[in-house]
Design goal:
Shape: elongated
CATH class of the domain at 44-133: Mainly Beta
Largest sheet: 4 strands, antiparallel
Number of helices: 1
Oligomer: single chain
Number of strands: 10
Radius of gyration: 26 Å
CATH architecture of the domain at 44-133: 3-layer Sandwich
Structural class: alpha+beta
CATH superfamily of the domain at 44-133: Rieske [2Fe-2S] iron-sulphur domain
Strand content: 25-35%
Helix content: 10-25%
Strand order of the largest sheet: 5-6-7-8
CATH topology of the domain at 44-133: Rieske Iron-sulfur Protein
Length: 135
Amino acid sequence: MQANKKISRHRFFRTLGGILMFPFFYTWIASIQRHKKIQAGNKELIYPLDLSAGVHFEDQIIIIKESGEFTILSSRCTHLGCKINKFENNQFICPCHGSAFDIEGSCVKGPAGKPLQKISHSIDSENKRLIIHLS
């Protein structure tokens, strides 16, 4: 005896929806992996050498230009990683917990206990560019 089973409309669409999700899920995963590869390949930032003197806050770095010399620091506080975006009284101030760092990145007030990370850079005199090497 063969039973004639009918599938409900609800179950049909639920199954169809599940099957159709696989291509979208695959595309989503592939786009995330492609984005990670692009981010990993972007390890240099380029700025003009004629950048004005003083402190410049960028996305992930702080550029300091004094007497034609550059110092590049990470803009992430060494306490909990908050983004530093304030410079007053010759100190970088973390907005989260008030840690303070001097112009060279040394910690002068906690709770952070480590200095800001210094970022390596080079000067391309021929093309008048500051090249910041992110790792």
